Every structure is written in structure tokens, then in C-alpha cells.
Amino acid sequence: MYFKYVGKTFQFECPWCQYRARISGGADSGTHCELQTVVCRDCRELFDVPTRVRRREPEKEIAADKFLRSLRLEIPPVVLQNGSFHQLNTPQPPLVWREFKLTCPVNPKHSVAPWNDPGRCPRCGNFLEKNGFAFRLWD
Hints:
The structure is a single chain. By secondary structure, the protein is mainly beta. The protein has one domain. The protein contains one helix and eleven strands; from the N terminus they run βββββαββββββ. It has one helix spanning 63-71, and strands spanning 7-13, 20-23, 28-29, 33-40, 45-56, 80-81, 84-85, 95-99, 112-114, 129-130, 136-138. A hairpin with a 6-residue loop joins β1 (7-13) and β2. The protein starts with 6 loop residues before the first strand and ends with a strand. The relative contact order is 0.31. The mean pLDDT is 79.
């Protein structure tokens, strides 16, 4: 599946019951995040939920970090990264993808299913209309 580098959020509206949602309308991705629009059958709402997020691996705490924290020295911000001491030439840990299951953001026990445009309104069952312009561009 091909993903762009900038995600887009659109406004969807139901002409029958006036339900509105600001969602991607299906699978979408940015540089460090992939989303999927889901319909929660219990909330009767549409949500964008993350399916994959790219983050740095947590680093192991080294003895120098503990030593510097105990001294509370004034260290230039260039040397401090993420609240810990690093040598300037130390390579950063690699970015890794973390995957998530599709769940409702209100309650993880709710029943959800993927939703893709064109799709039906979660409240009345009529087809939602998509605004032609992106409401928001996100990374």
C-alpha cells in the first residue's frame, strides 16, 4: 500500500441527520504515523486511530547520566538530549515502528470496524458527504 508523506483530514457530513466528523476517511499516513478511520458501533461515532507509530528506541541509562543528575551541573543544552547526557558524536538510536490494534479511543472494549470513504453514517445509515478540500494537513 502506497502512503504519502503528509496525512489529510477532511470534514464529512451527513445530509440527513447533520452528523459531522473530521477524519481521514480511511487509511492514511504521515512521516511517523499511520492512521485508520474506524466506526465504533457502541459510541456510534467515527474516529481516526493510530495503527503504527515510529519512535526512537528507549536508550539504556548509562552511569554518566546518574552521575550528572546527582551533581546537577550546568550543562549546555546542546549536550543534553531528552534530559540525558550524550557525547556530541554519539549516534541516535534507530527509529522503530510500533503497531497498535484498532480500538475505540473512548473505551477499548467497544466494537469497532474499519471505515472507508464512501461510507455510511454511524447514526442514521445514510452515505456521508466529503468536503472537497482538506480540513487539515498533518505529519
